[in-house]
Amino acid sequence: MEKIFKNGGKILTYTFGIMAFIFIIWAMLYMDEYRNLYTVHSNKDGIISIADDTNTWAVFKAVLDTTYTGLGKKWIVNPLILEIDEFYFNIQAVNNQILSLGVLNAVLFAVMLIGANHSRKKYYLSNLIIGIVTPIISIIYSLILFSKNSALIPAFNDNKINLNIYSLAHEIGAKVTNEKMGGSLEKYTSESPINELFNVTTRSFTITNVLCILMVIVSIAYILFTILKYSRNISKGGNK
User: Fold this and answer.
1) Long-range contacts for 56-61 (Cβ within 8 Å, ≥24 apart)?
2) pLDDT by residue (tens digit) across 6-31?
């Protein structure tokens, strides 16, 4: 037990710090498998502007039944495309929150180091406050991120075929995809071939939720350890 109180603060503090930097690194990787959904941009008039990309035009025309106006590379809005558009920007918002949580946790980690929660043999009132408030802040933001990230999973599942159609068209190009699927873009509408070529999944959402859960566990452990160590000091008269 003595070793736990001696080394526990250091282990938990540095674990908290490591988790903070993991979130920052993960924020750079979170969007990777969704990078090919970026070409859709809607405006208030119900018109979508897309990149000057033949592959995009081909897959929109043949698969998503979108009408090209021929003026300024504009496409009449298709509900399916609007869903892709909304999904992509929701992912971006969550990605920003992942980065924000990582930076926030890094700041909280610095506060823990300044308070010497990792090295003090005896915890005082300042250590108690730091050891409770900082993890609570992290828990709140982790749960918010968990909630918003989890909301993307049903949104993905409701439209996973179209998301993969769109992503694949940019990943390997309409011509190559044509060859892999028997030379017809219309075959994109068949679920079986798409399942063989899926490159957009819920993997990033799952990893993010796992990281959030780990962050909450570490934070709760930090709070419990702080309270126990402070109480122990009081019982020994060390906080007078």
Assistant:
1) 56/169, 56/170, 58/169, 58/174, 58/185, 59/165, 59/166, 59/169, 59/174, 59/185, 59/188
2) 677 788 999 999 999 999 999 999 98
